Automatic annotation (TrEMBL):
Record's keyword terms, sorted: DNA-binding, Transcription, Transcription regulation
Pfam families in UniProt: Penicillinase_R (PF03965)
TM helices/strands, residue ranges: none
Listed InterPro entries: BlaI_family, WH-like_DNA-bd_sf, WH_DNA-bd_sf
Family per record: Belongs to the BlaI transcriptional regulatory family.
Domain of life according to the entry: Bacteria
UniProt-recorded name of the protein: BlaI/MecI/CopY family transcriptional regulator
Organism this protein belongs to: Streptomyces ramulosus
Length: 125
């Protein structure tokens, strides 16, 4: 049997909880307050846990927030494709040899993905 969090939800890595909440916010199509997120999670997490996760995600610049009454309402800064692109850029920025990383990445692309990348790069010219 898996371990339980004090709030009753199954213990998951922080990244998994963040991904779950990010998906929920993306599906909502509008900014949500911590109370609304807690409700949509169906009691998996306490209100205070949701506030902590949303605040951490805002600090990481994954979410925007705006006052909504006495609380903040949170929304993703970009869509799923935008987040994937940010992760790729972060990985690239963390490596000392960008050319080697890009060469390896390009060399491992399928022919159709390589063709698509060429088309996208040509659009920028």
């Amino acid at each position: 049997m898996g371990s339980q969090m004090p709030d009753g939800g199954p213990k998951q890595p922080n990244g998994a909880r963040e991904a779950q909440i990010l998906a929920l916010l993306q599906e909502a199509g509008a900014a949500l307050t911590p109370g609304e997120v807690t409700e949509r999670l169906g009691g998996e997490l306490t209100y205070s846990s949701v506030v902590t996760i949303l605040t951490r995600m805002h600090t990481k610049q994954l979410l925007t927030r705006a006052r909504h009454g006495r609380a903040f309402a949170y929304a993703p800064v970009t869509d799923d494709a935008g987040f994937a692109a940010r992760r790729m850029r972060t990985v690239l920025d963390e490596r000392p040899d960008r050319q080697a990383v890009l060469a390896r990445f390009a060399g491992e692309l399928s022919r159709s993905d390589a063709d698509l990348l060429r088309q996208l790069l040509d659009l920028d010219r």
